[in-house]
Amino acid sequence: MWIPTEQEKFGVVLASFRGTVQHGLPLEIGDTVQILEKCEGWYRGFILKNPNAKGIFPCSYIHLKSADIKNKGQFETVIPNEDSVITEMTSTLRDWGSMWKQLYVRNEGDLFHRLWHVMNEILDLRRQVLVGHLTLDRMRDVKQHITARLDWGNEQLGLDLVPRRDFGMVDPDEISVTELYRLMEHRHRKKETPVPASTHHLFVQAKSLMSTNLGEELEVFFSIYDGREGRPLSERFFVRLNKNGVPKSPERQCTLFVDLGSSDLRKDVYVVAHIIRIGRMGAGEKKNVCSVQYRRPFGCAVVSIADLLTADSKDDHLLKVYACNTESEWYQIHENIIRKANARYNLSGSNTGLSVSLQLLHGDVEQLRREFMVLFSRGVSVTKKLGFSDIIMPGEMRNDLYITLEKGEFEKGGKSVARNVEITMYALDIDGQILKGQVAAGSGEPGADEYHSFVLYHNNSPRWAEQIKLPIPVDMFRGSHVRFEFRHCSTKDKGEKKLFGFSFVPLMQEDGRTLPDGTHELIVHKCEENTNLQDSARYLKLPCSKGNLPGNNQAVKGNKESFWITSFLCSTKLTQNGDMLDLLKWRAHPERIGDCLSKLKEIDGSEIVKFLQDTLDTLFGILDEGAQRYGLKVFDSLVHIINLLQDSKFQHFKPVMDTYIESHFAGALSYRDLIKVLKWYVDRIIEAEHQEHIRQVLKATEYIFKYIIQSRRLFSLATGGQNEEEFRCCIHELFMSIRFFLSQESSGPGPMNQTQVVFLQTFPAVYSELLKLFSVREVATFVRETLGSLPATLHSDCPLEAVKLQCIAKTVESQLYINPESRCILLPVVLRLLQVHMQEQRDLVMCAHILTSMLSLLKKDDSEQPLLEEVDLIVDSLLGVLLRTILEITNRPQPAGNTLRLQYQDVTGEFVACLLALLRQMSDKHYQKLLQCFTSKDDLRDFLLQIFTVFRILIRPEMFPKDWTVMRLVTNNVIITTVLYLSDALRKNYLNEKFDYKVWDSYFYLAVIFINQPCLQLESFSSSKRKKVLEKYGDMRVMMGCEIFSMWQNLGEHKLNFIPAMIGPFLEVTLVPQPDLRNVMIPIFHDMMDWEQRRSGNFKQVEAKLIDKLDSLMSEGKGDETYRELFNSIIPLFGPYPSLLKKIERETWRESGISLIATVTRLMERLLDYRDCMKLGEVDGKKIGCTVSLLNFYKTELNKEEMYIRYIHKLYDLHLKAQNYTEASYTLLLYDELLEWSERPLREFLNYPMQTEWQRKEYLHLTIIQNFDRGKCWENGILLCRELADQYESYYDYRNLSKMRMMEASLYDKIMDQQRLEPEFFRIGFYGKKFPFFLRNKEFVCRGHDYERLEAFQQRMLNEFPHAIAMQHANQPDQTIYQADAQYLQIYAVSPIPESQDVLQRDGVPDNIKSFYKVNHIWKFRYDRPFHKGTKDKENEFKSLWVERTTLTLVQSLPGISRWFEVEKRELVEVSPLENAIEVIENKNLQLRTLITQCQARQMQNINPLTMCLNGVIDAAVNGGLARYQEAFFVKDYIVNHPEDGDKIGRLRELMFEQAHILEFGLAVHEKFVPQDMRPLHKKLVDQFHLMKSSLGIQEFPAYVRASPIHFTNGSPRTCRNSVPNILSPEGARLVARRSPLTYPAVNRYSSSSLSSQASNEVSNITGQSESSDEVFNMQPSPSTSSLSSNHSASPNVTSSAPSSARGSPQLLDKHKHSRDNACLSPRDRPCSAIYPNPLDSTQRMIPHQIGDSTLPRSDPNIATPDKVVKPLPSSWSLDSGKDANAQLPDKFLVPPVPPRPHRSGSPAKNTRSQSPVATPRSPQKNPAPPFTPSPTECHSAGLVSNSPVLSGSYSSGISSLSRCSVSEASGTEGPPMLGVASDPPPPHTSSHLPTSASSGSDELTTRRENKTPPPYSVYERTNPRRPVPLPHSLSIPPPTEPPALPPKPHQLRIANKLDSDPRRLEQPPRPRPLPRKVSQL
Questions:
Q1: What pLDDT, on the 0 to 100 scale, is given for residue 135?
Q2: What is the pLDDT averaged over residues 343-354?
Q3: To the nearest whole percent, how much of the chain has pLDDT over 70?
């Protein structure tokens, strides 16, 4: 049976449990579990991180821990009983764990590794804490380390700052808000600005001396030297180096120069290293000369401490070592180096350097030892400062005497040269014994018994400047002396050292004073070598110093030899001051007491603090014995000592004095004298002129009171409390005197004021002393009366005002105020003073400080009566003024200085914390009382507005630092509680007739920003943090949302005041992803719509506001999918409110409501996509597509012009970033088209200044032209140049007109001179529900980047959509793909169908110009897919090979505002095998003609392309290529089964003969130009050609072929059968007419040879194209491959899946030939094959219009006008036989790159269109022109032009692939009506049924073109009433004119039946009309 557990509540999992049993709960090791029930060895419970999953688990797997249970029962929470630091560590490490892994994913390696180390360190420390074996001190250190590391990690990871006290986390509910603020502020400040350390230490490590000429041992002495004062600052650090220059003892190579003050870290303080060698006298002497070792100067190195200030870590330095030029300068070599006196020193060697490591450390030495354990791991000696540090610590023991050997003056001693003097120094005790180990050359090496100076060679006046330390113990100082022995070191006589004199000096004088600091000239006593100096008593009687000699001792004074030393004592026990000794020995000389007390003030402070206790005992001893006589002097001396301890240098001695008062002070009677003297001084204040001394007395008040109170306590103890009343009386009198002097007012800041200030500064320190003898209430009364006696009204600049506040601050912080009993006495005084200052906005920093301290005492849960009264008092006095103060300081501009700004922020934060603390402390009663005290509605209104405004300020993100989440949550909790109280007042007082909009508006605004603040968005928190917040505070957003709803319901008809103003704010609230909040808020929108409908009959306002706000909010990243669904779900507009349902059913606005919601939902879909795409890291293509979708939505569905323009500019910026300059231009044109050339002023908008509409449009034009130029779209730029030029011309602005014309000219130059690449186009389908809305289940055509081929594009798309799957076929997907929860991409290449056929087909238009029209302004694209219909003949696959041709029509032409546009319409046409064969051979014939023509015109660099093409066709034909067609279509079975194909079979036969004829002529031309080495190949081709002819059964060409073997107008042999005969010979080619149609530039982009770009474009020469404007000739796939990705790098297409057996050539070798041949081709010129596009079926061909003679430009000035007409040739299928059809046609169709400008009248678009040339069919019988004698390759311009075939698919066969002619709908050109269209019967080979749709297709197309959906994207749709401007035909929307009936083309006649039977071709749905454009107001 399961029993609820009582004690076993919390545990940790010891081993992982899989939970395989029924109801088992899987556990991971380390999980923490909460246990609910127990049963027979099993527990039931849950894991704390997932409380929803409950289950059972074995008891043995759990380690139980003791825990506290809160809210026992169903909702109990369990808190483990463990150290709060451990709890925090555990939870923090869990949070860090997941974030740490994310760092790895985000590739933040540095932080990843650092955090890993810190986590391991914390785990290590956690183990130490858990083991529990640490001492208290060590535990404290460990916790400090843990919290420091936790804080570091939290800061690095951007987590919250944790408030702590004593290393434990603080519960915000347990302390007051002000206390919480202080803790947060303290931690924040600590993090921000570490307090600069006052003490510094220099770590030095001597590494080595590098030199070439070593070989002797060295001694290095480091010291710190003050260059400014010319003296050392520290002792010396001494390192011995061996002969290799490396330290002898590695453990003695480091030191720490300690206790450097901040003043020592400056530029002129240096580290100096003196180097002494130990060896021979001369550095170069031979080794055997002398065995005695001398210390000799070697070199010196210097480095400035300033160089180390910037270095954070230990730096290695290589110091240059310098030597002196003369040894006598050695003592000041370091000064010379510092001063750069170069003449006195030089480098000791070019390679000599001293390697040292230096590091500056800051702070306490013990702390540094812990922090830099690595540095201190080896032996580090401490090198002390000379003298005491800046701060002297009590208990510091030091007794060091420093003696510096300065210089000597010696006689020659009977020698011819000067001596080599060495000094040996000893320290001897009182008995004359040498003190062992008391002579130290420096720190680092142990002390020695003696010290030898270095030797200067031949110098009788040597200067050493060597410093020696004598650390002699204090007890041995008396009677000790130092002896100096002088020896001459001979360099001969075996180098012996001869004693010749000595000096000595005693260390202490007889009166107990030590050797005074300073320089002493010692007498050199001469002696012999063998003199015995061991008996010191003998020489101690001699005089030691010349300064102390009696005047009559002339003998010694005459001695010329002297020795100088400098001594310096640093001792905490010994003194050199006689006055100090006299005072301490006052009993020995009672008559000198007065003198001694007077001299005390002159004694150095360090001497006094050394003997502090002795001095104080002396003073109180004198006071006890001579109070009357010395009382005043003792009091003054005591004041002097007390004030001495206020000095920062001695402040650490205050505890020494405190200890003295507590433990050693024994003056039980002193209190009377002290009170008496103090009162005497206070009484004299008013009359005294000089108050300096009195101020000194008042400054010492604290300690004087300490002595008074302690003295009285001692007296009471001794006497049992006698004279108590007398004592109280004295104190009362003293305070009366004080109050009297405080009450004195002075007119200005005079001496009296200063004295009052001094007293108030020390007064609070007296409270704690008085409390030792008086009750709390008594002391509180003293304080209240004293503070109350101060003058009330003072001017603001009076210093007393500020000090008064400081005094109050100290009072509030004192023990006295903390006691509630005394607090009620002091509170009124404090509040009164605070109120005055805050009202006047004075000393706000101090006010905030006082208020913080006061409110820190108020705990949240205290509900005692005195406390409630206190809160009442504070609320009455300060709440209003506190609100005003916060408003005032937050509205004030922040000060500029850093310190001031910090102070300003602190003040704001403190006042805010105070307000929150006060509000949190207020209960119902307080609120009731507060609201009742407002007498009028206006006062209450002002208060509410004020508090709501303050709350809004508190919610601002900048109010607290970003990691202060704890503080923000407390703030929000207080705000919502207060708002709940105040909303009642709002309802009661400001509804119905008393309604006040301003208060309600303020309330709603506050509520909205409250809900939206980032710190309440729990969704963004980690799960653990979210759980904590919800447990503590709940979801405060929902609480506030309910409050909004409740208040809204109360408003009634006043709701109308908030429509539409509150729509935006409320919408913002509903975007918060909290379901409960949304459910509460969304009904408010129903309500708004309902009220708005009642008021104005619609809710347009609601709609407009809703949409605007939605856009701005979604752009900020708010809202989500769920929100859209939620909004969608309320379409019925009733939801959970049945009464509302009934109401709505009676309303009329239900439908419009649903429509609004639908619009909003669709907008949200787009906005959500936009937001997701705009995220960092998304690709530009996605962003652009999404922006286009949104922009169109605003334009077409919402008609929101401002939003539309905003998104135009966002899209423009995206294009610029992606370098899509053409698209950027088109985008900006959208805005440009909204503007007129008018002077209307426009407001400032986006980045545009305030300007006129004309100026903005001009600026836009110039920007667009610049971008068209960068995008190489110069033709469009030219049009805008013209428009702008017209404007300049109309204003006579010739300067700008000139510039514009020059710009236009430069664009023309660029068209002709610069190369531009033709892009590929790709069709891409996005299928599946996972795509963004704007792509989902749609297909697009995309314009590729430069050089981008299919594989690259496919890879780019897969990179943009990394989760997408590429579909491996080109078939349309089925519904399963559409509905799949995935992403599918289908990509293949498509071919553009250009519209500008008039330019493309004109004779003489350069390719540079044509290339633009081939790939610009394209609406249609085509893709072919081969397939087999019926049974496939394995012997001959051509019998069943059909082609499915797909034409895609876009919603907008490319290029446009995007690189891709959606497909609007698909059209499918099937091409029969026979038609396919005809097109293949037509294409190959066209290719051959082109190559032959180019060869004849010598346009080819070499003849190889022609050779390859001939070889391919002949080879394939001989081996069965054409024969396959014969087998398939010429057999009897086929002719019988397909009687309707008779004409087509005839056509195929003609084409075969034509091909043979062309080949024959081609071989003739080839023979003429073939190089010698290719003759054998040519011979082979000729032989094979004869074989081919015989295989075709051609003995003689038919008459119509012979007549003009290659002269086929437009590539159709039938169109010129009756042409003038021509001789087939290569020579005949020379007679080519000047404008042979073979030289017409062609439209085909895929010309199939590796020719120049000119040649590749001349494919359609033979065809003389004047097809419809949609017509283009492309190569399409054949069945040779079946993969989406092409195996040709240049493939423009994704291939179809037809089997490989369907390939065109029947021979296996063809495939390899195809590959081989392709290798020779440029990517553009590869042949048609399965991966290349084919032209359209002939069913789509349309008939051209006539040419209007009058509008054509005459382009050749060298020919007379009549000569410019070429007579039309007779056509066997022309329908025009009327007698009036004699009009002549122009010879040349030369056009400029853009259509010529029209007349000024009429529509620009119409004018443009009317200029397009169109062909006029002429009658063959009525040709008056004399015929030319043309060459075999020549053809004339015909009135009608047939379709132009494109090149064949492979060189290997004329029939091997499915190349197609591209034909599209009718041309958009128009002209005069056609003549005599129906007058002649059709020729016999054409169908007699003319399709009626031939012209109607043109009508429909024109209409559809006119109605293109998004007209604004054209450059040209402009209505300009002032100056009509020409616009390009290619971009414009054609005018709705009815085109004339057109004569059919022969191809169309041949397939008329097919057209009749295809209803899809007859009807084309019209495009929607463009929206009426309104002129922009922006």
A1: 82
A2: 82
A3: 72
**1759 alpha-carbon distance from chain centroid:** 70
User: Residue 1788's CB: how many other CB atoms inside 10 A?
Assistant: 21
- For the chain, the residue count is 1978
Cβ contacts of 1409 within 8 Å, gap of 6 or more? 1311, 1312, 1399, 1792, 1793
Give me the half-sphere count of Cα atoms (radius 13 Å) on the Cβ side of residue 1304: 18
pLDDT tens-place string over residues 967-978: 999 999 999 999
Give me the sign of the Cα torsion angle 1587, 1591, 1595, 1596. Answer: negative
Q: Which residues pair with 563 in a beta bridge?
A: 408, 522
**Is the confidence at residue 1757, as pLDDT, over 90?**
no
Strand pairing class (168-169; 164-165): antiparallel
DSSP string for residues in 626-679: -HHHHHHHHHHHHHHHHHHTTSTTTGGGHHHHHHIIIII---TTHHHHHHHHHH
Beta strand 1365-1366 pairing with 1384-1393: parallel
DSSP secondary structure letter of residue 345: E
CB 70 within 8 A of CB 9: no
pLDDT of 1276 reads 94
Q: What is the pLDDT of residue 1124?
A: 56
Cα 113–118–124 angle (5° rounding)? 130
| Cα separation values, 1350 from 146, 695, 1389, 1444, 1731, Å | 59, 95, 7, 21, 11
Q: 745-749, 804-808, 1016-1020, 1773-1777: which has the minimum mean pLDDT?
A: 1773-1777
φ, ψ (nearest 5 deg) of residue 1402: -75, 145
Alpha-carbon span 1361 to 1178, nearest angstrom:
10
Mean pLDDT score of the chain, rounded to an integer? 75
User: Could you give phi then psi for residue 161, rounded to 5 degrees?
Assistant: -75, 135
Cα 1913 from Cα 1931, distance rounded (Å) = 9
Residues with Cβ < 8 Å from 478, sequence gap 6 or more? 430, 508, 512
- Look at 957-966, 1153-1162, 1317-1326, 1968-1977 and tell me which has the smallest mean pLDDT: 1968-1977
At 1462, phi and psi to the nearest 5? -75, 150
Other beta carbons less than 10 A from residue 196's beta carbon: 9
State the pLDDT at residue 66. 85
Q: What is the rounded CA–CA span in Å between residue 1845 and residue 1951? A: 16
Query: What digits encode the pLDDT tens for the residues 1353-1378?
Result: 999 999 888 999 999 988 889 999 99
HEC string for 1633-1672: CCCCHHHCCCCCCCCCCCCCHHHHCCHHHCCCCCCCCCCC
According to the model, what pLDDT value does residue 1739 have? Answer: 39
Q: What are phi and psi of 1811, to 5 degrees?
A: -85, -10
Euclidean distance between the first and final Cα of the chain, in Å?
Answer: 79
- Residue 1774 CA to residue 1031 CA, distance in Å, equals 93
Strand partners, 1321: 1343, 1390
Residue type, 1801: S
Q: List the helix and strand counts (H, then E) for the chain.
A: 65, 42
Most confident of 445-459, 607-621, 887-901, 1896-1910: 445-459
* This prediction's pTM: 0.58
Per-residue pLDDT band at 1912 (split at 50, 70, 90): very low
| CA 939 vs CA 141, 489, 916, 946, 977: distances in Å | 56, 103, 22, 10, 22
Residue 1084 one-letter amino acid: I
Do β-strands 42-47 and 50-58 pair in parallel, antiparallel, or remain unpaired? antiparallel
Q: Which two tokens stand for residue 1145?
A: 């059913």
Q: DSSP for 1419-1482?
A: EEEEEEEEEE-SSPPSS-GGGSEEEEEEEEEEEEEESSSSSEEEEEEEEEEEE-HHHHHHHHHH
What pLDDT shows up at residue 594? 72
